[in-house]
């Protein structure tokens, strides 16, 4: 029996470079809920960003945000229950943020519970986060100004992630999880989507084997391994394809088939 659908967003539900979901997805989410199946966007994105993206059904779904560092149950934005939170140790997080600041062509983003903190005055970058991604953004002069727990530290790498990963990975790949999140982001945190999914299941009283999960990138791998049924998007890294043989080109088509088979 399927009780939960967990899906990555960028590269999975939305092609890279696109900005909006297919409206037909909202009808599928409602039909799934009528059958007792919850839908959960599972992303490195911020809660506010995800709610804007899923606005027509935002109060009726769960949210696995910041790569699993914070989980929300269904409900309005200001009152939805926080099911789990996994902060980073503060001093290492600050040191990592400052290391990212030294990398040419990279920008740092530090994630609180529902705020993106940036040490940057580039209006184009700010517009990209606020308007393109739908984030709540606060500008700071130094990471030390942040007065809440840090859930994730990210490097925005518009020139590509391979070089930054080679530099940052040997130093910061432990104790943190490091994963590419699309073609221009590298994320670090104590949580990953697999841990987030396990904690979400515990909060909802579901079992991982009752989950169908969709993803396309390395930051989805732990979630795909945790779920009872894992779907990898066509075009994913061949090394991932070797680990997850069940592949699709459309999440909506798989969900439609799931609904049909359940009738």
Automatic annotation (TrEMBL):
Mind listing the UniProt keywords for this protein, alphabetically? Hydrolase
- Is-annotated flag, keyword Hydrolase? yes
Write down the InterPro entries for this protein, in alphabetical order: HAD-like_sf (IPR036412), HAD_sf (IPR023214)
- Can you tell me which residues the record assigns to a coiled coil? none
Give the GO molecular function terms: hydrolase activity
| Superkingdom in the source lineage | Bacteria
One Pfam family assigned to this protein is Hydrolase_3
Q: Output this protein's name.
A: Cof-type HAD-IIB family hydrolase
Organism, per UniProt?
Intestinimonas massiliensis (ex Afouda et al. 2020)
């Amino acid at each position: 029996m399927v009780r939960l659908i967990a899906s990555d967003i960028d590269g999975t539900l939305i092609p890279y470079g696109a900005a909006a979901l297919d409206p037909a997805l909202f009808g599928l989410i409602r039909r799934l809920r009528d059958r007792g199946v919850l839908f959960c966007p599972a992303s490195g994105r911020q809660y506010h960003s995800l709610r804007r993206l899923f606005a027509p059904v935002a109060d009726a779904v769960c949210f696995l945000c910041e790569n699993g560092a914070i989980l929300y149950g269904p409900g309005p934005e200001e009152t939805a229950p926080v099911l789990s939170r996994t902060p980073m140790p503060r001093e290492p997080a600050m040191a990592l943020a400052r290391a990212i600041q030294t990398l040419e062509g990279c920008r740092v983003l530090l994630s609180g519970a529902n705020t993106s903190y940036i040490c940057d005055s580039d209006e184009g970058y700010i517009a990209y986060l606020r308007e393109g991604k739908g984030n709540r953004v606060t500008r700071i002069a130094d990471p030390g100004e942040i007065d809440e727990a840090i859930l994730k530290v990210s490097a925005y790498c518009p020139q590509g992630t391979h070089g930054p990963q080679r530099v940052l990975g040997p130093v910061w790949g432990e104790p943190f999880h490091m994963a590419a999140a699309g073609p221009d982001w590298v994320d670090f945190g104590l949580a990953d989507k697999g841990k987030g999914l396990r904690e979400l299941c515990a909060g909802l009283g579901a079992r991982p084997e009752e989950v169908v999960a969709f993803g396309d990138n390395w930051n989805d791998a732990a979630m795909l391994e945790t779920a009872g049924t894992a779907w990898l998007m066509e075009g994913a890294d061949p090394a991932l394809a070797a680990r997850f043989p069940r592949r699709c080109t459309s999440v909506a088509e798989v969900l439609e088939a799931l609904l049909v088979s359940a009738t």
